[in-house]
Every structure is written in C-alpha cells, then in structure tokens.
Amino acid sequence: MAxxxxxxxxxxxxxxxxxxxxDRLEGFRRDPLGEIARQSGVDLPEVIARIAAMLRxxxxxxxxxxxxxxxxxxxxxxxxQVPHEKLDAAFDYMFQSDPFSGHVVIRxxxxxxxxxxxxxxxTVKVSQGFSxxxxxxxxxxxxGAERFxxxxxxxxxxLGVGHVRRRxxxxxxxADVPADVTDAAVTALTDLEWRVLVAxxxxxxxxxxxxxxxxxxxxxxxxxxxxxxxxxxxxxxxKIIGRFxxx
Length: 247
Fold this sequence. Notes:
Helices cover 36% and strands 17% of the residues. With 247 residues, the chain is of the alpha+beta class. It has two domains: 2-68 and 160-241, Arc Repressor Mutant, subunit A (Orthogonal Bundle); 73-152, Alpha-Beta Plaits (2-Layer Sandwich).
C-alpha cells in the first residue's frame, strides 16, 4: 500500500500539500497536520500518508517544529582576518571541528574594497552563560587568525518561500504587507521548559505522523498533554517558535 502512494513533489496532490506544509504554518499549532489538510483541501488521512511516503522517499528531508534559535542563545555573524597561508586550515577547523561555528565561507573579494582582508566568514552561537567573544578568542589561538569582528543581529525577520509555492510566483512578487520584525533577545528557560522544547523540536519519523501529533511528545517530556500544549503556546508568545514545516 505504502509503495503505491505517489512521492514526487510534481504530483498534483503532493503539490497542494507541500504548498501549505513548507511555509504556511507559522508559530505553534495544536493540530498542524489537520491544519495542512484544511488549507490544502486534502483529507487528513491522505495528508498523513503522503507526507510519510515523501519523507521515506527523501522527497522531503524533515518534518518538524522549527525554533527561532537566535532567541535561545547568543549568536552572531563573524568576520575573520586570517593570513593567506592559514586560510584553508582555518576554514577546515571551523567547518569540521568547532560545533559552535556554522555557515563557514571563504569570500572572494576585490582587494580595493573595504573589509577585503576579512575573507573568512562564519556564524557562531554559544550556550546561555557563555561568551561569544571568549570563544572567538579561543578560535583565534587555534587557527592563527589575527583579528575578528562580531556582528550580532539586532532585528530579525523571516524570509523565504517554500520550494513548491515558489514555482508559481512571478519574478518580483512580494507579500502584501512587510515582514514582521522581531527584536533579537535571548529568552531564559527553566529545566522543565527546556525538556518540553527539546521534545517539541525533535524531527518526526514517518511512523510518528498521526492525528494527535503532540501526545507522544508530551509523554516523552514527562508532562500532561494540556501542560505541553500550554507551554508550547507560551513559547510562541515569547518568540522562540518558528513554524511547523516539511522541508
């Protein structure tokens, strides 16, 4: 039966589902799969079967509740000044060996432009209670970098459109209203809230896609379902929830 379910995103019903599930479910939803069914016009059992089949086939890679990680830990874009002969080794170290660095890029720049000496760019994020500057100083010692500039975000807003919905947009298309802007501010959580958040954000396996999606996650977190849902909605109000998404 599962093998007979179409898994290509070009299938008309899959396209209707993905046009919603990729980027239309902002915030926390108590019944995200039901909301996908409602907005797409596809029956819930069919939505579940098709998302599970696409996940197994690799058409979609993840199904999960995304978070606004910028509000859970300090983070910044970092520009690095590294001697040319050490540039590749510094890239390799930050890309392969530093769990707090991401989006590691060596930039090609005209030597006459401002900032051209900063060719290595990364992001860095550290746990609450730790210092980004001290971690970057540690990376300087390990890589031979001469200088770094921390460029933390001040304001945040969501960009992007799901791959399926994007295919039907004309070049230059834009939303009717500007994106909502969020202040970048780290939110403190209790141990219980962290436990619920970890359960909330974990990726779903195909067999976990059921109508009452959050019941098992509440059990994993060791809390009653009503308490789990209430905390998730509070996370949303505190601007640490992104969207429920397939991608």
